[in-house]
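Example 3.2
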Amino acid sequence: MGYQVLARKYRPQRFADVAGQDHVTRTLLNALSQNRIAHGYIFSGHRGIGKTTIARIVAMALNCRTEVGTAARPTHEPCGVCDSCVEIRQGNAVDVIEIDAATNRGIDEIRELRDAARYAPSRDRYKIYILDEAHQITDAAFNALLKTLEEPPAHVIFMMATTQPEDIPQTIRSRCQHFSFHAVKFDDILTQLKMIAGEEQVEAEDAALALLAEAGDGSMRDALSIMDQAIASAPIEIVQGAGRPVLSAAQIRELMGAVPNAVFERLLEAVAAGQSAELMEQLNLLVNAGHNPSSLARQMVRYLRNTLMAKLGGEQTELLQISGDERARAVRTALLFTEEELTRNLQIVLRTFDDLNYRQEQRFHLELGLLKLIHAQRLLPIEELLSGVATGAPPNSGIRSATAPSAPRTTATPSRLAPIPATPQSAPSISPFGPAGGSWNSGPRMDSGFKPDSGPKPDSGPKPDSAAGPVATMERPSPAAAHASASEAFSSPFLGSAPFPAAATPATGYAATLTEGALAKAPEAATPSSGPPSMESLRHAIGSALVDAGHVSAAQLLGSGAWTLDSASLRIEVAGMGKKMLSLTVNAAAEKIIRQELQRLGAVARFLVIPGAGSDAPAAAAISAPLAGSIQEAALSNPWVQRAQDIFKAEVRSVVDLRQK
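Structure, written as tokens:
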């Protein structure tokens, strides 16, 4: 006999050998032991999970010639060695007729079957008809079979296997016992593949067998067919003195045209970080390597589904039918997103996959679909929108949100600042990100932005304290002065006008200097605290991180805003800038930095950056006294800008650095 494929060679011959269908085999064995044999059965379910196989096993058990209770047949399992069992296994039994209903689907074929069913079996106990793909039979043919199926002869049993039981008329289904087969679990397929690899003397990596089991997608036959193909393409190596095929994970991926899930993990990491360029570069490498866009979308759908299931049920959930390494990978990716974001991402990729089926430029549509994943990260959840309305933010103010990954938070609270001494003759330098140290005389609140009164108040002068020494004082600024200094307000603690001491770092504490030449009092080392970080520490940490990363414009813009911190979110309201310019300045990279700082400090998981009242109108004041070396100074010193100012009598009110960092 020629070569026999693995799916046929290792086809189960007993109920105990069938994997993943315990609910069916247990019921049929009990029916055989109790002699409760029905005249009609419908076996339905996914392809390649044992429907026709169990029908043959039932036929062998019914017609087996070996008595139950003997040494050869202790239970109602077929013995497998008698003439009837051998003939049924080989497919040439006289009284077990297996019909391909997809071919013999007309009324004439069913009439012949009905007429032949009247006669008694030639040799065996029962005449058994196995109708494979029974849903292909026409309605007229089913009607011709209806009366025979309702009142069949005692020696006739019908068994119908189908993948679409809903296409079988209800009148037929009501006259049969219906068994719904389950998809075979990943672990059951993996166990079977390991057993077959040992029988076939194939050296296989665990990761390779896991790939084959996952590719089976719940079908044992599909997994065995792919394994047969993989063995044929595997290299032969000398193992224990004999040449054996060796299956590796890389070889199987190449054979199936699959992409490692590590690639999709990197793609989703780029999505979570808002790195559009990185995402497109990774996709370009995949497409240039010859991977089909439609296949990539299908694999990404599967990976996103596994990630969502890991988010819902954890790493050990039964919803994940993948290997242990892939479970851990899915959990890592799930930490980057919320449940709502994963659901939205899966919906976007599913829609993209559907679009690719009838689009000519598949690559362009796949790129567009992946970019939508990044753009969707910036959408505002409805609860945050309602929260913004409740706190007075305009409903359509273009609120931008960022959500921190669902990772365990760490609590680190910067040390509190001691009162800051200053000389009475020094001019104060205001920093909206700086700490509210020292004693302020009618000064603005640092945690809510400048809120000037109608006019300036007289300077009350320094008020030395006999116990603590002289402290800095500051008069309440006028509305014009308050807004004009907004672009300079951030300069004090970060850009050089009042630098940090050499030993001060955001991680261990910091010192702020309000007056030039004044000696800052260095704080003690920061101590762990279980309480939430203060507003001052958030402003300082976020501003420092933005400046260190090169987002000076974003730092200055947020420094001029009003900050509000509650138990749920951090809200930064920026006045004097429209929605479009705000989104260009506080871009995705800046948002990522803010997210990281909020997570590091153990602060709230969400923040909002919104335009303040009158943001659609022009800014109230132009840039004055730009910082040395800043982008504002470079813009104002440009001859074209100066020429435009002279011609149009214009003034520069904001400068945004759009150059690629």
